[in-house]
Design goal:
Elements: E1 5-8, E2 27-32, E3 40-45, E4 52-58, E5 66-67, E6 75-78, E7 93-97, E8 101-108, E9 115-117, E10 122-128, E11 131-135, E12 138-142, E13 146-150, E14 156-160, E15 164-171, E16 211-219, E17 222-230, E18 235-240, E19 245-248, E20 267-271, E21 274-279, E22 282-283, E23 303-310, E24 325-329, H1 341-350, E25 355-356, E26 359-365, E27 370-372, H2 373-377
Parallel strand pairs: 9-16
Antiparallel strand pairs: 1-18, 2-3, 3-18, 4-17, 5-27, 6-24, 7-8, 7-27, 8-15, 10-13, 10-15, 11-12, 11-14, 13-19, 16-17, 20-21, 21-26, 22-25, 23-24, 23-26
Length: 389
């Protein structure tokens, strides 16, 4: 995270005695990235965060197989056809992935058990509904359009308020704002499309009583369920630069040019081997002879995974793309507007249309994406040929 926060009670200096009302010491837990040479936070627990009383291996119930995108083809997946099962952790349906990132979809109204992903950060986009994110750092209320970025190793759970649909981006490392948006000291710069005021972190501690509390833990070796002697939500205070936060896509400030700008202007986060972009409503390109629609393009180094979350997709008219669709345009394939879309938008501008209202979340990966069984189960098999109609 680019800025420092304090939540709850902390002592004046780090690593000094900090005592409970009964005279006992609070237990420190330092959460640190990259061998404690990068961002960290220091948490103060009422109980020992190391006190486990049981551990058992867990057999995954979700389908985890991935298949190469062969024959090479653009794809269209209809998430509206995916049935909900489980919760926002165990109910994730794997759509695509590689060694850097896994992309899953989940729809549910059930609360999850406590969970810790020790393989990498997660970025969960809430397509619809409301959910309370609870963690050792505190709680965050989230709703439609929110990205929730969860640091590696954070014990947390998801408590929906009714049905909720999400796209889960699971990284193999850390998810951060793009470096070009940050000063050398970590402040978001004036040219960045969002600022620190747009980011929502936990505002107060979350204390939950409990004993013999199970936590599902994902590591590179598989799944384990650890049982903690005391409830992990016992942190009275913490400070640092590392914590979960929410950012709403409606707070992204689009960068506009006189002619059409390429996808990097929409970049929101970056992770190891991938970027996340937000396509938001914005003024149309305003050069008098502009073509205010994406040109045919071939991103030779990446696969483009686009989740259409709201608005009207004039550039894709006739393709079958609609809200809830996901398109996958792999490296090796040139893609762009559907036939007739360019002239249609030029006519619309001539008739007074000045803005676009489309909204989408895009993940570009720098290694090929393989396909999950969830994606293949809801594929529109005719999508690849829609440019030739």
């Amino acid at each position: 995270m680019p800025y420092y926060r304090v939540v709850g009670e902390v002592p004046r200096k780090r690593h000094v005695q900090f005592r409970r009302p009964d005279g006992g010491l609070y237990a420190e837990e330092l959460m640190g990235e990259e061998g404690f040479s990068s961002d960290s936070s220091l948490l103060y627990h009422r109980h020992l965060p190391t006190a486990i009383i049981k551990a058992e291996a867990v057999t995954p119930t979700a389908e985890t197989r991935l298949e190469p995108n062969l024959p090479l083809s653009p794809r269209h997946f209809r998430t509206q056809e995916l049935a909900g099962a489980g919760d926002l952790v165990t109910g994730r349906v794997l759509l695509a992935g590689n060694g850097d990132v896994r992309l899953s979809y989940a729809t549910t109204d059930q609360p999850s058990e406590l969970y810790r992903n020790s393989m990498g950060d997660e970025c969960v986009y809430v397509q619809s509904g409301r959910v309370r994110f609870e963690s050792t750092y505190g709680a965050i209320e989230a709703g439609e359009g929110d990205y929730l970025v969860v640091p590696t190793g954070t014990i947390h759970r998801w408590v929906p308020d009714g049905p909720v649909n999400v796209l889960a981006i699971e990284a193999s490392g850390h998810i951060r704002p793009p470096k070009r948006y940050l000063s050398q000291y970590g402040q978001l710069l004036e040219h960045a499309p969002y600022c620190e005021r747009d980011l929502r972190g936990p505002a107060e501690p979350l204390i939950v009583e409990g004993e013999e509390v199970p936590v599902l833990v994902r590591t590179r070796g598989g799944l384990t369920r650890l049982v903690y002697r005391d409830h992990p939500f016992d942190v009275v205070g913490w400070d640092g630069y590392l914590y979960p936060f929410a950012f709403n896509i409606n707070d992204f400030e689009p960068i506009v040019k006189r002619t059409h700008a390429p996808p990097p202007v929409h970049q929101t986060f970056e992770g190891p081997g991938f970027v996340v972009c937000s396509f938001c409503p914005r003024p149309l390109d305003y050069h008098p002879e502009a073509i205010p629609i994406p040109y045919n393009h071939h991103n030779v180094d990446s696969d483009e995974f686009m989740f259409y979350v709201g608005g009207d997709y004039s550039a894709r008219k006739g393709s079958g793309i609609d809200v809830g669709s996901i398109s996958l345009h792999p490296a090796g394939f040139t893609h762009g507007p559907q036939p007739g879309a360019v002239e249609a938008v030029i006519r619309a501008v001539a008739e007074g249309v000045t803005t676009t209202n489309e909204m989408a979340v895009m993940v570009d990966t720098f290694r090929p994406l393989d396909l999950g069984q969830g994606a293949l189960s809801c594929e529109d098999a005719g999508y690849a040929w829609t440019w030739a109609r």
